[in-house]
Design brief:
single chain; 358 residues; 2% strand; coiled coil
Amino acid sequence: METKKQRVEAERAENPGLNSFVPRKIDIDKEMESFFNATRVNLPPISNPFSCHGQSVLSNPSSIMDSQRSISEHRTTIPSEISNSPESFSHSPSSSSPPSSSQDTLPITKDVLEMLKVITSVVKNNQSLLLNLTNRSGSNVDSSAELSELQRRLDEEEEKSKSLAEMLEKCIADNDALEEAAEVLKKKLQSSMSSEIEYTVLYKTAKEESKQAEEHYQIIQKECEELKKSLNEYKEEMVALKKKCEEEERKPLTREERLAFPICPRVERSNEEVEEKLKELNAYKFTNQLLLQQLSEERKRLAQCKSAEEVSKMEKERDELKAEVAKMKEKMERMKEVIDKADDGDLEFIDDSSEDDA
């Protein structure tokens, strides 16, 4: 990876115009020492302490470097005898009269010193400004490169964001479709679950009813068997009573018996007993009929409960029988084909034998 300094150097090598902005560093302290060692310099007449060669120091600070260099080049050696008379300092900077041609050199006054101080401060400020400008130019180059890279990255991120947005839209559409399908499936599941619950409830109730019906059927069977036994016993008793009555009726009564028993109490008693027994038998018959009706109803209920299972079994048997019938049909067709082939062979054999006989 290239550093910022390497990039700046490479850009300066490619663009030599950038090197013109780099200032030449001047050692101001040395220049000032060398300037003050020489007591007199050749200077033009000064009308304003803040102007140099007719130009303002503050308005055009770029000309200060050239003026300072010209001052350092035009320094002259000053004689050892320096007049300290006040006449040498009589020339003020504010005098408008030009100096005489014989006076080529001027003494250093307070105004000149102030002007030199201002010049040094301005030069230092200009040097700092130029250094800041160079640093800013390098930083601007680096920032332009970084901006280009950032712009490229932004373009890539925009493309990625567009692709991601398209993917998100597709995912949202797929999710909506899946949600709709899930809702449809939920409705189907709810309906199937409700039907299954109803079927299980009905199946359980049918099982319980069938168990209760079987228990009632067994109880009724036992009661019927007991009633049948009692009926058989009563029938046997009735037959025996009828035989006794017939025998007694056949026997002729003697006169003594008739006189002793003008009214046959035994016969009357027997008739009453028979009537009571007949009444009891009729009651038993009525109860038996009721029990038989209950049995028929219970059997119907059992048939209804078992009808669904029997229907499913019958359907399965019917499907199996259909499959067997289809298989038998295929076998019959194959047998027919074989028989037809055999008949054709027999006919050919008969034709051959008839030709031989001929």
